[in-house]
Amino acid sequence: MDSMQKYNQTKIYEGAKNDQLQTFRSNHTDQKLTTNQAVKVINTDDSLKAGSRGPTLIEDFHFREKLTHFDHERIPERVVHARGFGVHGYFQAYESMAQYTKAKFLQDPSVKTPVFVRFSTVVGSRGSADTVRDVRGFATKFYTEDGNYDLVGNNMPVFFIQDAIKFPDMVHAIKPEPHNEIPQASSAHDTFWDFVVNTPETAHMIMWLLSDRAIPRSFRMMEGFGVNTFRFINAEGKGRFVKFHWKPLLGVHSLVWDEAQKLAGKDPDYNRRDIWDAINMGEFPEYELGVQMIDEEDEFKFGFDILDATKIWPEETIPVKIIGKMTLNRNVDNFFAETEQVAFCAGNVVPGIDFTNDPLLQGRLFSYLDTQLIRLGGPNFHEIPINRPIAPVHNNQRDGYHRMTIDQGTVSYHPNSIQKNTPESASDADNGYLHYAEKVDGKKIRERSESFRDNYSQATLFWNSMSEPEKQHIIDAFHFEVGSVNDKYIRQRVVDMFNNVDGQLATEIAKGIGATPPKTAGKAGVTASSPAVSQANTIKTAKTRKVAILVDNGFNYTELMQFMDAMKNAGVNTEIVSKNLGMITSEDGKQIEVGKNFLKAASVMYDAVYVTGGRQSADSLLKQGDALHFVNEAFKHAKAVGATNEGVDLLAASQIQGVATAGTENNGELVTELGVVTVRNATDLNPFNGEFIKAIAEHRHWARKNQKDIVPA
């Protein structure tokens, strides 16, 4: 066994975590200022002039270098996925996948493969907000012993189009309109919906885009999908069709639209701040990797084309096999050097993973590489530290913009005799990349397979799979999005198009956008559903959630400490919110520091709200409109709301009806109603704390919408 075969990837990870970029790091602490050529600089505040008031001299090399570098500090932003956020981590397989693929990083459960993940929004520019309604990118770079593997996906399993040749049209339509550069990071405008009604294959993706999936609560709480159909190839050369899934262990959860809009103004960095803070606190996001596999002989067994990127493979029909877990545990050191310069390419695969004839994937194999050439200044972008493989690189590529490698020797060609024909081609025994031997036979033709013609059945399947709250959110999203379209003809065509998905859906859309409901209700003839696509069926946990504690001077210290300790033990984060920053004093003279004041905080930044007891504190909060608004807004957004003892008075004074007298006459009786948890006259808060943790874990309490005795703000 040679040294390469002894390659220990666990050591690769441990070394990479600390050393991968170490050669390129410098914190410049306690060092002398130099030029980029390492010449020490005496003065960097004044340019070289002909006299103190004279013109600057062109010979001032420091001035020219400094200004030239500044002028070129910005590289072209990505056309799509411009706003992103990157995180380091590692991946471990649960079991050997040798039966299905020879990809080495999927073989040994003891091996940790380093990864870099970039989350992103698709449509907006780098300066847009995190919480806009959009598809989210979920791209993962695996630094494996056989080279880099890029799994470039989204948080939705389907896409707008079936053939990549339409990608420029789709992006041009959804981007800000060219005459006025409006709107930013939004699909709520004429050109996009004009494209939609003229491109029926978009129907399924539109249902996903207008669902809660388009406004995730956190990057830590959204799924990822490879979207396209790939192949697994095992050592015997047997191929299987495969789709990739990332499943977050915190479950799949979303914002509500009102929250998303408000957060875009109050904290446009909400999602990136959320994952940055979580990692810094040691709450490392985890995602299980799953695969759906179809044997080649079963390619035509289903009622949809498995190469059609506008179709899912329903998990109830083709189960997801969970094969490993990814843990994200380290933030970047420098956003530009890592997150902005990372280059993902769908064509970066390793032995054991190959492509299919998915026409969207075929175009991606060209487009990603082509994009990086202009963004990152030429063919050597792979030498930027964040893109460098951990495995050694040996080839005859030379020169070009920004070449980092100093190649030695006289040979830069193959075959050669001067260097004994090295570097020589690898063999299959060396685990060299061997393309799958797929038979291809056909005439050159611009035509789409007839099996791609079904545009509506899976859009109906998705609609059938939604819970009632999710359906209402989709209808509301249509009202906002299509209601923003100025052209009434396009609005009507949207109604007519989605009548092919579901007649009642089309009727509800028409009500909100001033269009005519369909005369005859249509449907794609699908009655089946896929429970796996509904967020109602996701994991529900209170871990890593964030609770705002409303409190003021005169609070009950013992009560507050009991609550905070219980939340900490359950993995729930808390933050004290009050009128002013600084220290506040309890009724028995103890002090605690305020984390946020009402000017900086808002209920939309938290998963739940709690009001602690203490007569003076409660009376003070009752006089503060901000405190009442905080509670009302959290309740409106269906979040858990809790209060103990005198703190219940604030809820009773709010617009939450039905809790005003809850427990007033019953000492210590716990009252839970639709996610509102209260107790009065209690000294033992353990029952309350346990019930409140359960309420947080539910994420939302949609049943409030149907209660007449509880009125939202």
UniProtKB/TrEMBL annotation:
Spans through the membrane: none
Species name: Clostridium tanneri
EC number: 1.11.1.6
Cofactor section: heme
UniProt xrefs under SUPFAM superfamilies: Class I glutamine amidotransferase-like, Heme-dependent catalase-like
InterPro entries assigned: Catalase (IPR018028), Catalase_AS (IPR024708), Catalase_clade2 (IPR024712), Catalase_clade2_helical (IPR043156), Catalase_core (IPR011614), Catalase_haem_BS (IPR002226), Catalase_immune_responsive (IPR010582), Catalase_large_C (IPR041399)
Lineage: Bacteria, Bacillati, Bacillota, Clostridia, Eubacteriales
Family, as annotated: Belongs to the catalase family. HPII subfamily.
Claim: Oxidoreductase is one of the keywords in the record: yes
Gene3D superfamilies: 1.20.1370.20, 3.40.50.880, Catalase core domain
Domain Catalase core: 34-422
The reaction(s) this protein catalyses: 2 H2O2 = O2 + 2 H2O
Keyword flag Metal-binding: yes
Record key words, sorted: Heme, Hydrogen peroxide, Iron, Metal-binding, Oxidoreductase, Peroxidase
GO molecular function, one term: catalase activity
EC class: oxidoreductase
Annotated protein name in UniProt: Catalase
Function: Decomposes hydrogen peroxide into water and oxygen; serves to protect cells from the toxic effects of hydrogen peroxide.
